[in-house]
Amino acid sequence: MPDPRARLIVALDLPSVAEAEAMVSRLGDAVAFYKIGYQLGFAGGLAFAETLIGRGKQVFIDMKLHDIGNTVAQGVKSIARLGATFLTVHAYPQTMHAAVDARAGSKLQILAVTVLTSYDDADLAAAGYDFTVPELVAERAAQARDIGIDGLVCSAEEAESVRAVVGGGMVLVTPGIRPAVAEADDQKRIMTPSDAIAAGADYLVVGRPVIAAADPKAAAEAIVKEIAAAR
Ligand code: C5P
Asked: Cα(112)–Cα(216) distance, rounded to whole angstroms?
């Protein structure tokens, strides 16, 4: 496992590059890994990702790709050229095959999203699936493993059962992390950093508990300390 600081991924869920730049400079050496999603990505964040990479930071592009294979492959190649470390795709076999093939020869690792954590069994039924959430998560995790996907995004609550399906060869990245003292915000299934590590998470994605804290750097340092102490 990388050092504890490298296991914290701070979600730059901010509306502009200027605000992201200010946050990154406040966080300084406390944070080595950033996640850029729709909000910042579609507001100049992809160019900013390159800037961060040029400064030695690692970047997770959370764009949850899903399209015909050729389109996914070309998108993955562009993200690989940026120098990103992680990119998310939805866990559909055709999409996963295309992404894995297209990242070959780069340092980019593909993470699959099994079932969005906002979905429950009723949402799956409404979308036409005859599976419960745990059944579909396990099925897609096994497919991701067989296709050669590098890792999975899952809730910390799912981490233990997903780890049992995929074994030790894939990275597990878990959002929905709340240090014991933080507010839950709109996350329904939350875990502390120590519990998530104990459940088998390799990397923790944390947004608001860091970027909305009165002292973001102190908040990040406290989480890294908790990661370091966890088993
Ligand atoms: O602010 P908070 O810590 O809740 O941010 C969590 C981050 O992880 C957000 O960027 C959110 O989009 C992302 N995420 C999540 N649940 C998932 C996948 C990604 O909360 N299942």
From this structure: 29
